[in-house]
Amino acid sequence: MSKIIMIGMSLRKDSLNKKYIQNAHRILSAEGRQLNPELLSFNDFPLPVYDGDIEARGLPEGAKLLGEKILSASAVIISTPEYNGSMPGPFKNAFDWVSRIKPMPWAGKHVLLLGASPGAMGAVRGLWASRVPFEAAGGFVYPEMLGLQKAHEAFDENDSLKDAANEERLKKILMKFIDHIGPT
């Protein structure tokens, strides 16, 4: 089966997207298909703002480590916040650093985009903006995306999704994505 890495693209300790990707990880881990998805913490890959002068001295360790994780996977599932209708700066910065690695880690990767936001649109505008760099880098972005609206009210005291309908929507898109990528 495909190696899948999962990451919430937020640095904030109590991030709604970290909670959402943890729920997605729990669902995939409980699935009886020997998926063994790996949940990563974005905080484990510290990066300076992209600068060609820094790159000329060598890639930052965080970029190398994240790039290795991506290169070793056939699929990536990301949950991202939406900042002002787009992808957050730290996420775009990480994407850009990793894109400097040869061979291009994003090329050929199957990508599923999720998002969680307190807003009524559930980070969907940010998900649309996030598609662009993946597609430009040769990634295969799954056509469906899923945004969790009013995410600040969606989790219980254990960070699990409160609403069975939200849990079912998440499980459904995850299973469709897994079926789509198939064994590799």
Protein architecture, described:
This protein is α/β, with parallel strands linked by helices. The protein has a single domain (4-181), classed as Rossmann fold (3-Layer(aba) Sandwich), CATH 3.40.50. Helix content is 40%, strand content 14%. It is built from six helices and six strands. Strands 1, 2, 3, 4, 5 and 6 form a six-stranded parallel β-sheet that branches. Helix 5 (124-136) links the parallel strand 4 and strand 5 (140-141). It is globular, with a radius of gyration of 16 Å. The termini are close together. The model has no long low-confidence stretch (mean pLDDT 93).
The fold-level CATH name is Rossmann fold
Tell me how many strands there are: 6
Distance between the termini: 6 Å
Average per-residue pLDDT, rounded, comes to 93
Percent of residues in beta strands: 5-15%
What's the helix-strand series?
EHEHHEHEHEEH
Number of continuous helical runs: 6
CATH architecture: 3-Layer(aba) Sandwich
Note the overall shape. globular
- Enumerate the spans where pLDDT stays under 50 for 5 or more consecutive residues: none
Query: What oligomeric state do the depicted chains represent?
Result: single chain
Structure classification: alpha/beta
Biggest sheet statistics: 6 strands, parallel
Q: What is the CATH first-level class name?
A: Alpha Beta
| Structural Rg | 16 Å
Overall structural domain count: 1
CATH homologous superfamily, by name? Flavodoxin domain
Range of helix content: 40-55%
